[in-house]
Amino acid sequence: MRIATYNVNGVNGRLPVLLEWLEATAPDVVCLQELKAPDEKFPAAAIEQAGYGAIWHGQKSWNGVAILARGGTPVETRRGLPDDPDPAQSRYLEAAVNGVVVGCLYLPNGNPRPGPKFDYKLRWMAAFEALAGKLFDLGEPVVLAGDYNIIPTEADVYKPERWVDDALFAPDVRAAFKRLTDAGWTDALRHLHPDEQVFTFWDYFRNAFARDAGLRIDHQLLNAAAAKRLKAAGVDRSARGLPKTSDHAPVWIELK
C-alpha cells in the first residue's frame, strides 16, 4: 500500500501536473494540501476519471486539504482539527482507507515570527499534539501525512544558518515535532534514510531546485501499528521538475 502526501500549491492550476504524477506512480492513497479552492471548485470529475475517489475540505484562495483513494472512496472519520484555534481555516481531514487511518494536515506556516501568525501556529500544533495522542493508541495503523511546515533538524535544510529566524525552524516548533517522535510516532522518511540529506521543498527563487537548496517539511508520521508495516519511503523529485509545478515534491511510503 503506497501512501503519498503532496502540497500541490493550487489544485486547479497544477491539475495537469497532479494527473501526470498520478498516472506515472499510481499511489493507493494521496493526501493533498494547499488546494486553494472552495469545495465547489475541487476538480472531482478529473480526479475520478484518473481512477480516484476523493473527499476534500476546501477554502477559497487559501489552505484546503483532500484525501484520494485509488479505485475507491475514503471513508471520512474527521473534518477539521478538534479545538482548532481558527476553524475557518481548512487544514485537517481524516479518513479510513483499506484498514489504515490517514490524517491529512496542512500545518500553519507561522511567519513572520514573532507575531500573531506564529502564535496561531503554536496553538494549532498544541491541538494537533492532543489529537495525535488519541490516535496513536488506535488498534489499526495510523498515518499522519502532510505539509508540517517544520524543519525537524539541521540535516533537513540547506544552509541551516540562514533559517534561524524562520518560523519553520524555530526551537519551540522543532521541539513540538520531537515530542511527537519521542511519544512513539515514527518519522517514516528519516527512519529509513537516517543519514541522507533528503528534501521535499525547493523555493521558486534563486534556482533553488537546480542547486538542490531545499528543505524537508513534508512528513509522514506513523503509529506503532503502521511503523511495523513500513518497508519503503521516498520523494518523487521528478514531479518538482515538471513545467508549472508545485514548489513541493510528493513524498511517499509503502506499507506491507
UniProtKB/TrEMBL annotation:
Q: What's in the keyword line of the UniProt record?
A: Hydrolase, Magnesium, Metal-binding
Residue ranges of domain Endonuclease/exonuclease/phosphatase in the record = 4-248
Q: List the PROSITE patterns.
A: AP_NUCLEASE_F1_1 (PS00726), AP_NUCLEASE_F1_4 (PS51435)
Cross-referenced InterPro entries, in alphabetical order? AP_endonuc_1 (IPR004808), AP_endonuclease_F1_BS (IPR020847), Endo/exonu/phosph_ase_sf (IPR036691), Endo/exonuclease/phosphatase (IPR005135), ExoIII-like (IPR037493)
Q: Where is the signal peptide?
A: none
Cofactor requirements of the protein:
Mg(2+)
PANTHER family named among the record's database cross-references: EXODEOXYRIBONUCLEASE III
* Entry's family note: Belongs to the DNA repair enzymes AP/ExoA family.
Protein name, entry field: Exodeoxyribonuclease III
The species is Sphingomonas humi
